[in-house]
Amino acid sequence: MTDLNFTRSACLTLIAFCGCLTACSPDGDGTAAAPVAGAGKLNQGPVSQLSSEAVVINGRSFALQDYALLVDGQSGSPADLAPGMLVRAVSSGENRTLSFSPQLSGPITAVHPQGPEVLGQLVRLDEMTSVNTAQLQEWRVGDWVQVSGFRLNDHSLLASQISPAHDRRVQRIGGAARNVRRDLQRFAIGQTEISYGAASLAESMEAVAEGQRLTALGQMGPDQVFVASELRPVAIRPVDGTEVLAYAPAHKPSPDSLSVAGIPVRGADSAQDASSGDVLYENQLVLVEGFMEQGQLTARTLSVPGPRDGVVQAQIEHIDSTQRSVRVLGDYLASVDDQTRLENDGQAGHLDFLDLRIGDSVRLIGMRNADGMQLARLQRLDASRPGRAEIQGRVDRLSPATLSIAVDGVEVALDSLVGSAPHAPFILALELGQWVIVSGIYDRSSQRLLAQDIGNLRR
């Protein structure tokens, strides 16, 4: 995580056009800008620099005097902007707008190690989330926040920015409608069920459809069902000819296909920098630059500029062949799917999941989730390698009294490092949310990683 003075760098996410130029958030969670005929250019991502004269998004500066600023569809001012907010810059002819609308706004309903729960939605924080760390530690259930971020395929929200909500008159949830039940006038966005029987629908809406992207305004009911008072639809598909620079979670329905924000991406393999070594997997945040052609985004370049993979090295302690998962470091769960690359010490194509054995040393690389990670790559290490354990991740608990921390839920004992001249200053300066790499020996009896080395992880 970053403090409010710092922001996610090199980030852009897809803005959508439908029939005419229309801007929306990466998950369709925003108020559409005024339509303008014809294709144009779009640029959306978290604010990296902000002044009274300009806003910088993905390294590009936009003069505020040249753009109409919209906050939740209404005229706004530069004071409404903050680092980390997903801001949409749209230009087509004389029409130029900068617009922002949060995906979530409402009270915190629970607090988890991965982040707060807002209106029943898990909000995940990573090393690039713009948040005031001191403020985060003080947040309690009932505090109001607004969240800007990316919807993941487990229906949680990966926050690019989270801050106190100053407007408490209305709660909001934005995303794609799922589990639509028109007979009950209910559907879900993310992890929250929504009742819309009493809601006013925009003129362009006849009914709620499965997969439709919209924003629901209303209040959370006592039965944990969100009661919508208003539904706002959002366009999702860019028109052909639109120049797009998109930063959003990748969806891989198969190893040979890729879509970003619901838009099929063509030419991803040739556009990706093969020398980068990046492994694309479900929910991986990718930056795609290209143009719309025949309803698809033809990629010129594709890279992974955002958060890197979680990495764990340890011995397998349990194997579940039915669920295709392994456990390491106690309860750290790593799941395999059809897109996971299985390797024998770096050599692809020579390992089957059923060949794995308890006690094998493995290196796991993938997307962190609530229990551990969804694997993009599993490497079985040579038996002659030393059996050291390693984890690269975020500090989610500090316990100075016991000289221990937790990294992505794994307990780490720092006793042996406190008296070390190179390590002592680093340990004393550790903060919640800091990214570290820790190596040592895993003690099964105490279920702790006994650290022998610790350092800052440059992301």
Topology:
Blueprint: E1 41-50, E2 54-57, E3 60-63, E4 68-71, E5 74-75, E6 86-92, E7 95-100, E8 104-112, E9 115-118, E10 121-124, H1 133-138, E11 144-151, E12 157-164, E13 171-181, E14 186-189, E15 192-195, E16 200-201, E17 213-220, E18 226-233, E19 243-251, E20 259-260, E21 263-266, H2 268-271, E22 285-293, E23 296-303, E24 310-315, E25 318-320, E26 325-328, E27 332-335, E28 341-344, E29 347-348, E30 361-368, E31 372-380, E32 389-399, E33 404-407, E34 410-413, H3 415-418, H4 424-428, E35 435-443, E36 448-456
Parallel strand pairs: 1-19, 4-7, 10-12, 15-18, 16-18, 21-23, 27-31, 28-31, 34-36
Antiparallel strand pairs: 1-2, 1-6, 2-3, 4-5, 6-7, 8-9, 8-11, 8-13, 9-10, 11-12, 13-14, 13-17, 14-15, 17-18, 19-20, 19-22, 20-21, 22-23, 24-30, 24-32, 25-26, 26-27, 28-29, 30-31, 32-33, 32-35, 33-34, 35-36
